[in-house]
């Protein structure tokens, strides 16, 4: 999917792939897989989801969303909503994009060590 040139320049985004964009039935009730490719060679995958789709998933399966599957919540699956969400994730050297990406990689041992070393 082509993004505006100013978004590509300010965030060092090489390209964005939206694997399921053509399968969206309702822009306010669905989710899509997105891969953000940065100029530094790294790429990050994430899920964009709408609030209505979160409700649908909870009604369909269980009364909560597992935290093991982090999602970025957007009002609608349109570029007007997707673009600022990706901008926010890529700010500050893509801090939140990287944290989102790494959220599933830390084992409990490493998390406990990081918490133990934190000064409260």
Structural commentary:
With 120 residues, this protein is α+β, with helices and mostly antiparallel strands. It has one domain (5-116). The chain has helices at residues 5-11, 51-60, 79-102, 108-116; strands at 13-18, 31-38, 43-49, 72-73. The radius of gyration is 16 Å and the shape is globular.
Looking at this protein, list some descriptive labels.
globular; four-stranded mixed sheet; alpha+beta; 19% strand
Number of strands: 4
Order of helices and strands: HEEEHEHH
Radius of gyration equals 16 Å
Count of runs of 4 or more consecutive helical residues: 4
Shape: globular
Percent helix range: 40-55%
Q: What about the largest sheet?
A: 4 strands, mixed
- State the end-to-end CA separation: 44 Å
Total domain modules: 1
Helix-strand category? alpha+beta
| Spans of at least 5 consecutive residues with low confidence | none
Provide the β-strand percentage band: 15-25%
Physical arrangement of strands within the biggest beta sheet: 1-2-3-4
Oligomeric state of the chains?
single chain
Mean pLDDT: 82
């Amino acid at each position: 999917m082509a993004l505006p040139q100013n978004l590509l320049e300010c965030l060092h985004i090489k390209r964005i792939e939206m694997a399921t964009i053509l399968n969206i039935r309702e822009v306010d009730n669905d989710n899509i897989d997105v891969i953000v490719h940065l100029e530094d060679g790294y790429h990050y995958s994430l899920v964009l989801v709408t609030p209505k789709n979160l409700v649908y998933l909870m009604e369909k399966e269980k009364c909560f969303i597992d935290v093991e599957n982090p999602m970025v919540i957007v009002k609608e699956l349109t570029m007007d909503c997707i673009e600022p969400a990706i901008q926010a994730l890529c700010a500050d050297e893509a801090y939140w994009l990287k944290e989102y990406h790494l959220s599933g990689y830390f084992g409990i041992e490493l998390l406990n060590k990081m918490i133990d070393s934190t000064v409260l």
